Amino acid sequence: MSSVPPTVPRIDSPTFLVLAYDIADSAKALALRDEHMEGHLGHMEANWTRYVSAGPMRTEDGKGYLGSMFLLKAANRADVDTLMIGDPYFRSGLYDRVEVVPAVVAIGTAIGGRIWAGADQLKGAPATVVSKG
Predict the structure, then answer these.
(1) Residue 83: CB partners within 8 Å, gap ≥ 6?
(2) Which residues contact 129 (CB under 8 A, 6 or more apart)?
(3) Contact, 74 vs 12, CB < 8 A?
(4) How many CA atoms lie within 13 A of 67 on its CB side?
(5) What sign results for the dihedral spanned by CA atoms 120, 123, 126, 130?
(6) What value, to the nearest 5°, has the Cα angle with vertex 76 and ends 41 and 124?
(7) What is the pLDDT of residues 101-128, one digit of tens each?
(8) 3-state secondary structure of 99
(9) What's the whole-model pTM score?
């Protein structure tokens, strides 16, 4: 594998990082996760093209859950909210706190490279700059 990632096109829709933190009662949170897991997975599978990446956030020892992270393609914040409220985990009371932030997917194996050809392309550039690949 090359040490320099290839340049790839930027994802063509806005992306948002959703960090959903479980309620403090870890036993109740685990019970809610188990109870609603099939519906949660079904919702994600039905909408899989909207997810750049998603998965549980684990404790440092890997034995417990802190919450869930979702990197989503969505038109705007209202679109994120509509998608998330369809997920049984969000409706069940599993999450105590949810953060939603606009994000740019800029580099990584999930997108197959990086969205810039060189640093000069990014310096002083507005957030709407799109790589031509």
Answers:
(1) 47, 50, 72, 74
(2) 121, 122
(3) no
(4) 16
(5) positive
(6) 120
(7) 999 999 999 899 999 988 877 777 665 5
(8) strand
(9) 0.87
